[in-house]
Amino acid sequence: MKYYKRFLLSILLQLFSISLLYAQWVPTGPSSINYTLPTFAASGSNLYAAVGDAIFYSTNGGTNWRAVLAIPGLIFTSFAVSGTNIFSGTAGAGIILSTDNGENWSTVNNGEVPSLIKELAISDTNLFAASSNRIYLSINNGTYWNEVYSDLTDKIINTLAVCDTNLFVGTNYGLYRFVNNETIWNKFDSSLINKSVNALVISDANLFAGTDSSIYLSSNNGESWLSIGDDLPSANFHTLLLSGMQIFAGSDSGVFVSTNNGKSWTEQNNGLTNLTVHSLMLSENNLFAGTLDGIFISTNNGVNWSSSNTGISNSVVNAISGTDTEILAGTNRGVFYSIDAATNLARIDSGFSSSLITSLAISGTDFFAGTHDGLLRSTDSGTHWKRVDSSFSNSSITSLTISGTVILAATYDGLYRSTNNGTTWEQANSGLPSVPYYPRAINYSVVGSKIFAGSSSPATIFLSTDNGSSWTDIGNEGIEPLSGISSIASVNANLFATTYYGIYISTNNGSSWTAVNVDPTSLVNSSLAVSGTNLFVGNAKGVFMSSNYGQTWEDINAGFPKFSLNNIVPASSNIRTLFISGINLFAGTNGIGVWRRALSEITGVNENGDELPKKYALEQNYPNPFNPSTTFSFSISSESFISLKVFDILGSEVATIISQEMPAGKHSHQWNASSLSSGVYFYRLQAGSFIETKKLVLLR
User: How many CA atoms lie within 13 A of 461 on its CB side?
Assistant: First the structure.
C-alpha cells in the first residue's frame, strides 16, 4: 500500500494541462500577416485585432488568436470600446457592433452613416465616427447617428481625438478643433497646417500630433504648436500611445519612446522584423505593435519585441493537395508544406518568380505548383524547384489535374498533357472550345477512367475517356447557362457540379442535370470533396455536408468565424478549396489560411467505419500477465491529444507508448516490454481532462 500511494503521488506530480480539442474546425496556418497592417482594441483582458478582412480575438494576452468574423472584401479599419460594446469601423458596411466579446456582430448604421468609416473615437456617452470627410455622432451606443460636421469636403480625415467638449480632427491638410456648444459644433482652425496629421493623443493639457514628417506638441488646445524631438528621424508617424509618463510613437522607422514629454526619444526596435508600425496598443502592461509583418508584443515597455501571430493568417488559399501523410497548400503568399496534418506549415517556394499559387498536384514523389508565371516541379519535397513549362505558349497556369500517370495543366492558351512527370508536354485541346472561352474550362474531376471538365460562359461539361487526349462536349442540360461550373465530384454513380447559383446532380454521367436542395448553400459554391457517401461543399457561408446525395445539407461550421453580417452573404466564397487527407478534412479559405477538422467528428464514423464511442474508456491490456508483448485498447469520443505511458511500482516512467493527437474512435496499440524485468507496472491514459490508470504484470 505504501508503494501504491507513492505511485499515485508521483502520478499527480507529473500531470500537466492538455487542452481538449473539441469537435470543431481549427486553424492550422500559415501564421503570417504580410502586407496588411493590424489595428487593435482591448476590453479588459480581451484583445481584438483587425487584420484585413477579418477580426481576431485573444483571451490570453495575444499568445493565441481566434478569428471571429471574416468577410472577403470587407476591410475593418478601426475600433472603439464602450463597456461591453465593441465597435468597429469598416470599409463597406459602415459601423458594426458586438456585445458578446466578438462572437456575433451587427451593423448599427441608423441615420446617415456611409459605408466607409475610417476612424472611431469615444468619450463618455459620445461616440464619434469619421468617414473620409464627414463626422458623425451617436449618444446612444450607435442606435442612431447624426452628422455633426460636413465642411471638410476638401480634406481627408486621418484621425480623431476627444477631450471634454473638444473634438480634434487630423486631416491630410492640418488639424481642426471642434467645440460642442450645446447642439452646435463650432470649428476652429489650428496653426498646424500644411501637414498630414496621422495620429493624436492627449495627456492632461498637452496634445501630441504625429504627422508625415515629425511629432508636434500643443499646450493650448492646438492654437500653437512646437516641433519636438530633434533626435527623431524624418518619418511618417502613424500612431501615438500614452503609458504613464511614457509616450510611444509608431512610424515608418519603427517605435520610439519618450519619458520627458517628447523632449528626447529613444529608438526601440529590437525584435521587430518590419519597421512600418501603424498601430500601438497597451493591455495589462503588454505593449502591442501592428506592422507589415504582423503583430508584435513587448513585455518590457518596448525594449524587446517578439511575434504574436499564432492563430492569425491573412493567406488566401487557392489550392490544397497531398497524400494521407503530406499536405501542400498553395496561397497568395507561396507554397507551404506539412507532414503533421498541417499543424506546422513551412514555406517551400524558394526561387519562385511569383508567390501567387493557383494550383498544386502530387504525382508519386514529385510536387507540381502552378503559378501566374509558370509551372514548377520539385523532386525533393519542395527543397528545390525547376520550371517545366518551356514548351507552353502561355505560362499562366489555371489548374493542375492528375489522372494515373497523366498530368494535365490548363493555361490561358489551352490544355497541356504530360505522360512523363512533366518532362515533356503536348497540347490536348481536341474537342475543347477555342480561346478565349477555354480559360474558363479549368475545373476537373477524375472519376475512374473518366475525366470531367467544367467551363463557364456558358456553363458546359466536357468528358474525356482517354486520359485527356480528346474531349467531348456533353452539354449543360438542366444547368443555368450563365452560372459557371466551379467544381465537379462524384459520389458512387452520381456526379455533382457546383455553380454560382447552386448545386446540380447527374445520374447519367452528365447527360442531364437536376438542381438539388441547395438551401442554405445557394450562393457562391466553389468546391467539393467526397468521403465515402458523404459530400462536402464549400461556399460563401462555410462548409456543408450531405449524406443523402444532396437531398438535405448539414451545417458543419463549428469553430469557424462568422462568414456573414446581418445575413448579408459575401459575393465571393469564403471556402475556396476542400481536400481530404487521411482522417482529416481541410478547408482553404479566402483570407484566413488553412483549417482542419477530423472526419470522424463530422460523419460520426471513425476511419475503420465503426460507430464512434460515446465516452472515453481504457480497457485492460491483453494478455495480462504477459511476456513480452501485450496490447492496449482504448476509446475516445472526440479528437484529442493522447498520452499513454507505463510506470514502474515506484511511479517512475519507463515507457511512452503514445504521445500525439488522435481521432475519435476505438484504438489498439501493441507494446513490447522485452527490455524490462519482471514485475508489476501501471499504464495511464490521459486524453484532455480524462485520466485512467490500470495495472499490468510482466512475467519472464
Answer: 29
